[in-house]
Amino acid sequence: MNIAQLRKSLKIKWLTYYRENREWLVRLGVWVNCDGQRRPSSSFILATLSILEPRLTQIFPLVVELSNNPDRVVAALGLNFNPDVELKAMTGKSPVTEVALPDAVKMLPASDVSEIKLNPDSKASNITSFVDENCRGTRDSPD
Known about the structure:
The protein is mainly alpha-helical.
């Protein structure tokens, strides 16, 4: 595993995730100041990245053996930076401007309400509750 390549991949994935979810992330109470950088907490970053990059969970046991300080792990992965400042440096645009644009707001796709068909005459089945109530466990068996 190439560590430099992993760091670059993690940085891109983290910044992409941050840019796409910035609208609610800036209001979330996970922001800290670490070594002069304002950023989300190390625990939040590491938890997010463990979902975005499954290979990271393979090396976490080794990393935690070397250092169980999440701030040091984030710094070692090259992620101790303010994502707003980093995005601005990379794109030349402020992330705030990008979020303010109508295209940046994520909406659920429109649906046709006429597609939903409900049958009010159907009655709920209680077969599952009947089966659960008749459960006797292994001690009641004559074996």
